[in-house]
Amino acid sequence: MKNTIKRTIAILFAFAVIAAFAACQTDTDSTPNDTQPTALTHDRDGFPFTPPASTDTIISIGPSNTEILVELGFASAIIQTDTHSAGIPGIANDIATLDMMALDMERIISLNPCVVFVVGLARVYGEMEPLAAVSAVGIPVVYIPTSVSIADILDDILFIAAATNRQAQGEAIVAAMTEEIEFFRQLGESATERRTVYFEISPAPFMFSFGTGTFLHEMIELVGAENVFGDQYSWLGVADEVLLALNPDIILTTTDFLDDPIGEIKSRQGWGAITAVQNGDVFQINADASQRPSQNIVLALREIAAAVHGEF
């Protein structure tokens, strides 16, 4: 009942200011490629969607969306983003931020955005369409679900580029990524030994990793290594005794809130027996590049390849 009241208030508020959005819905002079937007019918999450006539003002919810939009040249058009996107190069330091887990619909509507991009992670409201109050007033809302494969990420970039009428820029980004990905694929195929990798997302005492069905697993396999949890699916908790039995050749960590995350791993009780620790093959991987499904995954791919192959 409480959620229903909040949603009703948001919709009523939205209709009160609907006239303010006419410029965003009708302005066609600012399209970057000097043409009408691509005739898309549905977003990446399957919701009906009509590309905005203007991209002068954008709200980006989700750091992967924000990174893609910045790369497409929309940094100055982003008027609000989420707390996790704060600090992304190109975004204003003083930009207002939203909590992805508690989106303020009234705030979104009052900012008069021409379009809102939101990650699938924001769908935590128990509703089919979490930003229904926003789309109800005619503001295009684009849902981009969290991608689980490299191919999905490439498609996300092309879709966002098409939705913002910057197809040429999107194709250039994807072409550059594809070229680099292919380089590492060939590097992996030329490897004479498939070294085993434990990739730690969360450190002790609540260790967390992943199996298949994730683009990180795909990246490990792509560079010619083997994920020690490749026989499991998606995200999983890790027990000390299991990891010790698996005895990985390489340990990767994205922990960036400890002073010495590599030293912390090496100092864990019993972990001195692990081959990776004995050989000093414990490496830190950029957390943002490896966990955000955007064009920046290639930065993490380089780091993973360097950990597996050394200099290349």
Describe the model:
The chain has 312 residues and is α/β, with parallel strands linked by helices. It has 2 domains: 2-172, Nitrogenase molybdenum iron protein domain (Rossmann fold), CATH 3.40.50; 192-309, Rossmann fold, CATH 3.40.50. The protein is 38% helix and 13% strand. Strand 1 (58-61), helix 3 (63-71) and strand 2 (78-82) form a beta-alpha-beta unit. Helix 7 packs parallel to helix 13 (297-309).
Task: Give a concise summary.
This protein is an alpha/beta fold. The chain has 13 helices and eleven strands.
Strand order of the largest sheet: 3-2-1-4-5
The CATH topology of the largest domain turns out to be: Rossmann fold
| Count of beta strands | 11
The CATH superfamily of the largest domain is identified as: Nitrogenase molybdenum iron protein domain
Q: Residue share in helices?
A: 25-40%
Number of helices: 13
Average residue pLDDT:
86
Shape verdict: elongated
Oligomer classification:
single chain
Alpha-carbon distance between the two ends:
59 Å
Judged by helices, strands and strand pairing, the structural class is alpha/beta
Write the layout of secondary structure elements.
Elements: H1 2-16, H2 22-26, E1 58-61, H3 63-71, E2 78-82, E3 96-98, H4 105-110, E4 115-119, H5 132-135, E5 141-144, H6 150-163, H7 167-189, E6 196-200, E7 208-210, H8 215-222, E8 226-227, E9 235-237, H9 240-246, E10 250-253, H10 261-266, H11 275-278, E11 282-284, H12 287-291, H13 297-309
Parallel strand pairs: 1-2, 1-4, 2-3, 4-5, 6-8, 6-10, 10-11
Antiparallel strand pairs: 7-9
Helix pairs in contact: 6-7, 7-13
